[in-house]
Structure formats: C-alpha cells, structure tokens
C-alpha cells in the first residue's frame, strides 16, 4: 500500500476525522439532494463495475450498488482508515461491495476495468489531482464515464460561510483564502477542472452549475456540526481557539441560524456536477 502522507492524510486518519464518524448519518441526510444530483444523469446497467473515489463511510457506494444489481460490483476507495472501518461495519454483509484503502494519486488500478467512476466531494483533496484523474481515466473502459460533484465558490455556500464568519467576528481570525490547494474549494474554477480532465485524457467534458439545498436538523445539532466540520471548524482547530471563545462563536451561529430558519429550512448550496468520458 502506497499512501501520500501529507496534511490530508493526517486529517483523515487522526482525531480530526472523528466528527465525520460521529455525524455520519446527519451529513448523509444533509447531502441527500446532492446524492440525487450526482446519480441522476449516469446510465447505469445491471452487472456493471463502478469505482467510487473518496468513498468515506460508503453512502454513495451503497447507492451505486443498488443501481447495478446483485452481480454488479462496487470498488470504493479512500485513504481514511476510520471511515473505511465504519464502511465495513455498515455494509459488511453486502456482496460485491468492496472498500479499499488506496490513494489513487500514488497507485493505479488495472486498466479498462470500470464502467463508471463517481465521487461525492471526494476529489477536491488531491495534492496531485492530474495524477489522480489520469489513473481514473486509465482504469475506465472505453466510453466509460467519470461523474463527480464538488463545491463552487465558498461565499455562496451557507453551511460554510455562517460558521466561518462567526469565527472571524469573535476571534479576528481571517477566513482562509481558497486556491487550488487540497481542500473543499480546490475545484471552484471551471477552467481549472477542464484543464485537469483534458490533460488526463478525458473528452466530452460537461460542467453543470447547480444550486440546491442542504437539509437541516435541529439548531443545536447544526451548531455542533459546524463547530467540528467545515471552514469555521478548521479555523478553530488550527488556531486552538479556547473554550470561552468557542461558546461565544456558538451563540453567534445560533443567532444567525435562528434568523435564517425563520425564512427557510435549508442551506443554499452551490455545486458543480462534472461529467467526462474516456
């Protein structure tokens, strides 16, 4: 097993990943509409072979499995041992649904073995995305498709902006700048996505601008999640914000959510759905 031991590796394998396990059900519920968007244009057939990149605990892998039937195969890959352990616990009794600890930046699959490759927010964390996309291209059969969803601009995604600006307000810590470095907004630029895919060999590249909704739960749960997952959580974690200040941040987020949820029962979400063909 060859893994690139960079900042992303340590984030997804150490204590920092624990909120993704604790709130796995809540995050899958939050992303329900995005799951539908990911899958709605893919022409699945029974018995096909699917690659799920950055599978996490396996929600999209399980959805794909239902679409290809009992004899279809899902190969799900991720670098996070804790998330893959949860994957195995949830889906251990499902035949032909396999998860592997694999970094596709560093290692290849056999060529021409998958009918489709998919990813829900799993391709923005590559340090070498061109290499990962090239390995994906090589693993697909001729005319196979690669479909993924990724975040667009930070400023339009309320799930990220609300806590980040509360942290800034209460601590004077600047919201990070977002560029092509690994992170949730590394693929915010269409031209960059197209360049990566073309360099990897893909054709018929389509990038859809989509505005959708993230589901919400109770305000207390939303605050708990925002303090542990996302840009605001990163600002708190990296700057070691103290407990008293965290409580002030929570109160500020609470005030914002109270106002927002009087108008709407969701967060606005701006994403890209990207499709490319081998």
Q: Which tags fit this structure?
A:
278 residues; alpha/beta; seven-stranded mixed β-sheet; 12 helices; 7 strands
Short structural summary:
With 278 residues, the protein is α/β, with parallel strands linked by helices. The chain is built from twelve helices and seven strands.
Walkthrough of the structure:
With 278 residues, the protein is α/β, with parallel strands linked by helices. The protein contains 12 helices and 7 strands. A 7-stranded mixed sheet has the order 3-2-1-4-5-7-6. α8 packs parallel to α11 and α8 (158-171) crosses α12. The model has no long low-confidence stretch (mean pLDDT 95).
How much is the average pLDDT?
Answer: 95
Proportion of residues in helical segments: 40-55%
- How are the strands ordered across the major sheet? 3-2-1-4-5-7-6
- The multimeric state of the shown protein is single chain
Q: Please summarize the sheet with the most strands.
A: 7 strands, mixed
Order of helices and strands: HHHHEHEHEEHEHHEHHHE
Strand percentage lies at 15-25%
Using only C-alpha atoms, the radius of gyration works out to 19 Å
Shape category: globular
- Span of the ends, CA to CA: 27 Å
């Amino acid at each position: 097993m060859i893994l690139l031991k960079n900042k992303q590796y340590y984030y997804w394998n150490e204590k920092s990943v624990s909120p993704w396990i604790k709130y796995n059900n809540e995050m899958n519920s939050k992303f329900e509409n995005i799951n539908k968007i990911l899958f709605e244009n893919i022409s699945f057939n029974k018995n096909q072979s699917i690659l799920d990149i950055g599978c996490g605990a396996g929600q999209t892998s399980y959805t794909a499995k239902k679409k290809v039937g009992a004899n279809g195969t899902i190969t799900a890959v991720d670098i996070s041992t804790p998330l893959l352990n949860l994957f195995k616990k949830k889906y251990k009794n499902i035949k032909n649904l396999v998860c592997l600890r694999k970094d596709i930046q560093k290692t290849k699959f056999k060529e021409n073995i998958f009918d489709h490759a998919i990813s829900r927010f799993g391709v923005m964390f590559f340090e070498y995305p061109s290499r990962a996309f090239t390995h994906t291209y090589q693993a697909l059969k001729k005319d196979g498709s690669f479909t993924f969803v990724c975040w667009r601009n930070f400023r339009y995604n309320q799930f990220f902006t609300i806590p980040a600006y509360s942290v800034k307000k209460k601590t004077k810590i600047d919201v990070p700048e977002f560029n092509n470095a690994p992170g949730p907004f590394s693929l915010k630029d269409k031209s960059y996505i197209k360049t990566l895919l073309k360099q990897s060999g893909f054709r018929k590249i389509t990038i859809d601008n989509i505005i959708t909704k993230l589901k919400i739960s109770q305000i207390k749960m939303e605050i708990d999640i925002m303090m542990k997952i996302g840009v605001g959580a990163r600002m708190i974690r990296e700057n070691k914000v103290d407990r008293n200040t965290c409580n002030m941040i929570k109160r500020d987020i609470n005030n914002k959510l109270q106002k927002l949820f009087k108008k709407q029962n969701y967060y606005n979400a701006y994403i890209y759905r990207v499709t490319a063909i081998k």
